[in-house]
Design a protein that fits this description.
It contains two helices and 13 strands, in the order H-H-E-E-E-E-E-E-E-E-E-E-E-E-E. It is mostly beta strands and about 190 residues long. Strand 4 and strand 5 form a beta hairpin.
Length: about 190
């Protein structure tokens, strides 16, 4: 099974090689806890046009989202100091479905908007009718953690959401989303 997927990836890479859209498939982590597989992009940044047909958006650089992509929600956080330590967790609707992206926010000289680089992605699982995705508004053991994304049960008239179905934390240093225990996580409705 793994060999067939590697052969399929190699075939797709051969087709997309001219666009510079292929990364390194040597990672053994095939779970939703995605690690960057894009070491091959270092010399040639991905453009939105080069990654639309890919199976991953990791490595994509953009100032504004390409056609077929839309921003749904997100939050920013800092890791380290200065402009080089700015990150975002964004929910993005893509041609492949809803995704969470961990992005580096890079200032662009002389421009008002920054460029973003997708460092990791996680497919948003299908949500039940009573569930919603909370980004950047969850406390872990009483402390706000903007890196936490959680699937919560949305109860009518409740602004402090304590029924957490699943949660992840964006790891900026490792470039991945880690599944985290839901005990001790409470999310607040934005603006409440």
């Amino acid at each position: 099974m793994k060999m067939n997927r590697i052969n399929l990836f190699a075939t797709a890479c051969a087709v997309a090689l001219a666009a510079g859209a292929c990364g390194d498939y040597s990672s053994s982590d095939e779970s939703h806890n995605i690690r960057s597989r894009d070491s091959g992009m270092a010399g040639r940044p991905a453009t939105p046009e080069a990654v639309v047909g890919r199976t991953s958006s990791v490595g994509m650089r953009y100032g504004s989202l390409p056609s077929g992509f839309s921003y749904e929600a997100g939050s920013t956080f800092s890791h380290g100091s200065g402009a080089a330590g700015r990150y975002a967790v964004s929910q993005v609707r893509t041609p492949r479905g809803d995704m969470l992206w961990l992005e580096t926010i890079e200032p662009r000289d002389g421009r008002a908007t920054a460029e973003r680089v997708v460092r990791a992605e996680l497919r948003v699982p299908p949500l039940a009718a009573d569930e919603r995705l909370m980004i950047g508004s969850c406390d872990v053991n009483g402390r706000l953690d903007a890196r936490v994304v959680a699937i919560v049960v949305a109860e009518p008239g409740v602004t402090r959401l304590t029924k957490i179905r699943q949660a992840w934390r964006a790891d900026a240093q490792a470039g991945r989303f880690d599944l985290v225990p839901v005990a001790g996580i409470v999310c607040e409705e934005p603006g409440s």
